[in-house]
Amino acid sequence: MPRLVVENVAKEFSTRAEPLVVLRGISFELESGQNLAIVGPSGSGKSTLLNLIGTLEPPSSGRVSLDDVDLATLGPADLAATRNRRIGFVFQDHCLLPQCSVLENVLVPALAAGPLATERIDQARLLLDRVGLTHRADHRPAELSGGEKQRAALARALINGPDLVLADEPTGNLDRTTAERVADLLVELQEQDASMLIVVTHSRRLAARMGRRRELDEGRLVESDS
Amino acid sequence: MIRFILASLRYHWRMNGAVALGVAVAVGVLVGALAVGDSMRESLRRLALDRLGRIDLVISADHPFRAELAEELAATNGFADDFNQAVPVFLLRGSLTRPNDEGESIRANRVNVIGCDKRFWQLSARSAPAGLSNRASGGGEPGDYPYGRSIVLNRPLAEQLGASVGDAVYLRLARPGAIPSESPLGRRGAPVSLRLRVGAIIEPAGLGAFALDPSQRSPRNVYVSLETLQDRLDQPGQAGVILIAGRTPVDAPAESEKRLAALLRPGLADFGFDVERSDRGYRTLSADRLVFSPSAETAILNALKKSKPDRPIQPALTWLANTIACRGREIPYSTITAVDFASKPPLGPILDQEGRPVEPLADDQIVLNSWAADDLGAKLGDPIQITYFEPESLDGRLGERTAVFRLAAIVPLAGAAVDRDLLPHLPGVTDRLTMDGWDPPFPLDAERIRPKDEDYWRDYRGTPKAFVSLAAGRRLWASRFGRTTTLRVADAPSRAEVVIEETPPATKKSHGQDARGAHGESLFGVRLPPEAMGFVVRPVKRQSLAAASGTTSFNLLFLGFSFFIIVSSVLLVVLLARLGVELRGPQIGLLLAVGWPRARISRALTAEGALVALIGSVLGVGLGVSYAAIMLAGLETWWLPAIGARFLRFHVAAGSLIVGAGVGLVLSLAAIWLSVRQSCRSSPRWLMAGSAAPRDALSGAIQEKDSLCRALARRVRWMARPCALAMVLLVAAAGLTVAAARLGDEFQAGAFFGAGAMVLAGLLAGMGRRLVAGNDRTAIRPGRGNLARLAVLNAARHPARSTLSMGLVAVACFLIVSVSAFRVEPSGRSSDLHGGNGGFTLVGQSDLPIVGDLSTRDGRSRLGFSDDDNRRLDNSTIISFRVQSGDDASCLNLYRPRQPRILGAPAAMIARDGFAWADAVDRNNPWQALAGAAGATPAPMALERDTATYSLHLGGLGSTYLVDDNQGRPVRFEVVGLLKGSPFQGDLLISEGELLRHWPEVTGYRFFLIDCPGDETAAVRAALDRTLGDYGFAAVPMDDYLAAYLVVPNTYLSTFQSLGGLGLLLGTLGLAVVQCRNVLERRRELALFRAVGLRRWQIAWLVLAENGFLLFSGMACGTLAAAVAVLPHFISGDASIPLASLAGTLAAILLIGLAAGGLAVRAAVAAPLLEALREE
Questions:
Q1: Measuring CA to CA, how many Å separate A130 from each of A88, A193, B488?
Q2: Least CB-packed of B241, B603, B655, B761 within 10 Å?
């Protein structure tokens, strides 16, 4: 069973003055089917923590392991493969390729594996169906609404059947109703796939949808009171 | 507003700097190209002025004249008004040899021999040539050289000979002014040889490089004492040329040559005439060339008749009768005169033995004097057989003929029948006291001379023993050299004329008052026109300065070379300006959103752009000067064969700077204005969304509004679709190609290149259209190639930007590929009758005319070939051409030719056929067209196509060209054939007959084509060199001869290609800029790829594939368009496309382009991932 372990992770950035410590002593675990919301004010280090977990940057100290594999020990190719096959990203502003159709955008992570099998197309269409964008498959991102773009981004995050989905403010740019819909979909898909989900948000409403909630306070992860 | 513009200018200094640099490149190339043209023209001008010194005009004649004539001319009233000095010299062509220590001779042919004294150096515009005043170089007083046997060499000649001061050298010259060697009475044989010593060596500058015929190459000059030359050439006190110095260093005033001609008063001796006064009341005028040239005779007769229309004049033609025979008896070596007897004194009558005037003779009648009649025992009515030499020999062989006359009268040796002056002066004959002492130029059988002949010679000298009618004599003995040997002119009864005759020589008379030649010898005070007697006044400085403008406009030439760089740099400016404006899209959008009118924003941005362009232009002027300096350095080093000599000096005219900067500025401003205008038309929303997301229109359509094609489309509706534009351009190109086939060569090349350029534009427009259309295609599909398709899709996101990038590469490729096809490899061509070498293996040229037939054993024997050498030449075909000297009109000479060299093609060449013809009136037998109808006007002429096109600017077949004969009369020729790749570069080819008709004084042969078996080439060269070396003969392999010409166009092509390479550099720079900009704009997308697990190499491949797509597409467009441009050249078989090297070049272009794309790849994979994701 997939399992994410974050142990005593810290992150500091060197500045012209003294080093800036963003995260200190972060530890938690997450297992398949579980989800976690990390909340906190802007600048508290939420996104940094998500990037550390997503191997987009290394921690200054501590350990992030997925299925007992310390991600820090992996080379660039293995890290890329891990991100590609085991981790799905959903960014706040969707980050869709404007020149590609929605379907093509969903398939972008699949390109890393080389020649594209027809089954992957079917799988992408299925995912679009699951996020309710079947009718928008051939549209360009510019032709979608904000919620649709985020749902497309969600489908893209799931195309390789990741064990871990990391969502950074997935509803940050959406109105309340749309945000609700995206949040529902996020949780629903995670439960259906029994994957792990970590959502970074400052939305208390979204955080409330998650099974577990933690708050970043001065770089430390504490139990959220909400 | 101004503060806003200035602030914006400062803030965006990087992008503005890039645009300014682009403008600087455009302006720089324009200014540089014009400056190179200026430098070339000015350098040629300075070179011409330097070599002529203070010499403005030259008086020359086709025969030597008194050197004193120069002093007499300088002493005339009015001379000092325009001129400063008149210096007599000999200007001859010869060869110089130096025996080296190994006993071999080093020979330099085509040496300019300047017979002068120290007055010559006073004509220099600078101080005495370096080396001349250096006493260590050979002793003597500065400026004294040349003197005695001490000569001066200029350095190029000294280096060729390996000569040092003190070395002995041998100079070989033809003897000037003698009776034509093709007359049986003219001298043939080896030239005059002078043993001389090198007294000084001077640098080839100023008069050290003196030459009348302008050429950028340093002449090889030897300066010999005038006195020594006069002595050795048997021309005491004579000169061949008078050099006239002007009063100022600049050219003499216009029309000065006419004023000088009016001051010129040559005497009869200067014309080579001699006048003998008879006590019978007439004078006999004769020429030292034995016969009067037809023009001289006509001029003399006209002048005499004009002065006194009723003056009796009796022309006569006296010839040598080898034998006069009758009744089995014969008289050897007599003179016979053709004359129409006058009926009245003093020129007649001739009385017979009965004292009756002899009636005019019929053509078959002859009169003998009593001595001859007695000797022969001839009676009236007897047939008299005359054996004589043919009056001219074309092959060096003296032909003897016989004519039979009927004896009509016998005249006593008295009265008008006794006139020894009827035989003109014949050196070696008339100057000998006895016939036994004769040293005639013809073969003489001394055994035949009897004592009675000696007696006659003692008593009567050359008095003719027989007379025939003038018509009969001319039919037998007239030649191209003339038809009259003496003119007997009756003394005028006028007292005034006698007075004039007795007037002592005067040198200070007012203009036009000279009634006699300054020499004191004249014919009844009649002024003979010097120009008709072979005197020519040439404004050499003016002609040289005019020639310095070149055969083509150097400005246009180098603008043409730089054209594609200019196009590339303008495209680069467009590209950079667009990027700059796109970069500011959000700001423009914001200004629009807050209510700034579009026009105001457009004005502000355009004004800022204008400032940028202005700065760029100023930079560009400096860059242009550097560019020109580099080009000039290139022309004097890498591309030296194109100009042949190092003579360039930097020069730029203010006009060129202004024009170059102005045109560059206007082009750049247009590019900037267009970019600004398009951006300001976009919606504020798009603009504020930033250039990273230019396509977020809900319609999904691409922002074609930004495309260049769209901008044009607004102006011309029907051209709205790039596809339509492409089609129009391609159809126009096809039309131009068809039309080009009907145009002349000069326009044809331009038309084909124009068609190629249109194809290029059409293909690029089509590619632009494809990019626009391809934007909606699916990139990600099952199977392989998804990243490549995604790359193409990326390229289609900015169709205009991508099209411009492709265009930059395409233009460079177009240039490089098309130019490659025109390169001609000089070596390795086999002997081919209908090829460029015409089946000949050697080309020979001699300095001195060779009178003889090299094609036959007998002819070679007469020229002195040994039996062994003669046998060696048995298997060779040698075709000899007559040569009328003229300017080098080939590509080797940058000066504009005034009158090209003319070759007379002999019948053997016309019959042989051969060489490759670009076009001819009669394609089946082009040479026959040269033979044409004898005497036709205009006369048929053939020449090398490139000479016709680029040097003489002739239109092609049927065009006519005027040259002057030696009397300055125009002769019109019509082009009947155009050769290609032949050894006749720079020459006009006419038939030998036509050449002799218009230039009868040309004797012998100086240009030779030799076909010999390949394995005998060296032996044949050696054999020819051994015997003909004294004539300055040298034979070179045909391939080497042709290669010397091919190296020029090939070097120009290299220049063109090098500049194309510079254009390619700009292209790849533009491509790299675009790619870096794309990567910058898309760095978030690229980061996303990394975030979702694409490997770095996959991202690198994505970026590189896009770069490769643009690069390859550009190369394909350029290559395809180039193929259209060179297609006719290829079809005609002229092209020898170096496929291997071309493929190598294209591969290099691809690699360089991909390497430039590597910058973008590096930027893509090295960008910090998180910052990119956050768009920081």
A1: 16, 12, 128
A2: B655
